[in-house]
Write a structure and sequence with these properties.
globular; 13% strand
Length: 302
């Protein structure tokens, strides 16, 4: 099965020049998620990310230890992260499951009141779109129900989508474009946006990162706060250097139950302070990137 995009070697591209001669776009993505505690199978329930307690239980058995570790992010961690970005004066992109809007409207309202960008992020975090591979009608139904809840909760239609665990199918971009979305954030294969050719027109891929991500740094690699801060700085410094010749996107992904822990939050606070006063940094919403890129790059070459 072929991909929906052409291979493009970075050195062969026309240099990308962001607005105001910015070298780099920095996106902070906070994933605000909701999980089922059980499902109707003895197969362990995958909650869309690593667990704190490693012993897996059958899916029919409530895993209170891991569920409550994640819920810490909703009760405490998210408010630490909001405080960091409020004090820095730097906006973020947030993603929400439909169930987040239904079960935790206090969080979604707090984000929406700040005017931050919010992406649709599946109906519930424990359901991956790859479960519907080969069943596009079932996948479309889940996406449509997610978008309906999003519009009701946020007060406007969604423009972008990030799948749980970046798990999408070959049909996902076609369905998203069919249902009126402008971009997808599941793709990890570039430092710049690129177009996807769907049956319904062009859908833009605006890359996410699974590397500059608190799951990788803390939960999977066991980094110290200082090491995670160093990794983010290294990534920024290199892309900032390269961006002088050809613009880049740097995304930092985080989860309130990980980056929002008291021992971890210093990493993101000091990284935000490190980059916010650098010249040539654009703290853009993905929808702003989509609008600018469509007008100045895609439409320019048509």
């Amino acid at each position: 099965m072929s991909t929906l995009y052409e291979y493009s070697a970075l050195p062969d591209r026309r240099p990308l020049r962001w607005p105001q001669d910015s070298r780099i776009v920095v996106i902070f993505t906070i994933n605000i998620e909701q999980w089922d505690m059980t499902h109707d199978s003895d197969v362990p329930l995958y909650a869309g990310g690593p667990s704190a307690v490693p012993y897996e239980l059958p899916g029919t058995v409530p895993d209170y230890a891991n569920f409550l570790w994640r819920e810490y992010g909703q009760r405490v961690g998210i408010w630490r992260l909001l405080d960091v970005f409020d004090k820095a004066g730097v906006p973020t992109t947030c993603t929400i499951n439909a169930r987040t809007a239904l079960d935790r409207p206090r969080i979604v309202d707090a984000v929406n009141e700040r005017g931050w960008e919010i992406l649709a992020h599946n109906y519930v975090q424990t359901q991956m779109l790859n479960e519907f591979a080969g069943r596009p009608d079932a996948e479309r139904d889940v996406i449509r129900r997610t978008l309906d809840v999003y519009e009701q909760a946020i007060g406007r239609p969604a423009r972008g989508w990030l799948s749980s665990s970046m798990r999408s199918t070959h049909e996902t971009p076609h369905i998203l474009k069919e249902l009126g979305l402008d971009f997808i954030a599941c793709y990890l294969n570039d430092d710049q946006p690129f177009p996807l050719s769907t049956r319904h027109g062009t859908l833009l891929a605006i890359p996410y990162s699974n590397d500059l991500n608190d799951y990788r740094m803390f939960s999977r690699c066991g980094m110290s706060t200082e090491a995670a801060l160093g990794m983010m700085r290294e990534g920024f410094d290199q892309m900032y250097l390269e961006g002088a010749e050809n613009g880049r996107i740097l995304n930092v992904g985080m989860h309130p139950h990980v980056m929002g822990q008291a021992w971890a939050v210093r990493a993101i606070r000091e990284f935000v302070d490190y980059v916010k006063d650098k010249p040539g940094v654009w703290f853009a919403k993905r929808e702003e990137i989509a609008d600018w890129y469509t007008k100045n790059v895609i439409d320019h070459v048509r």
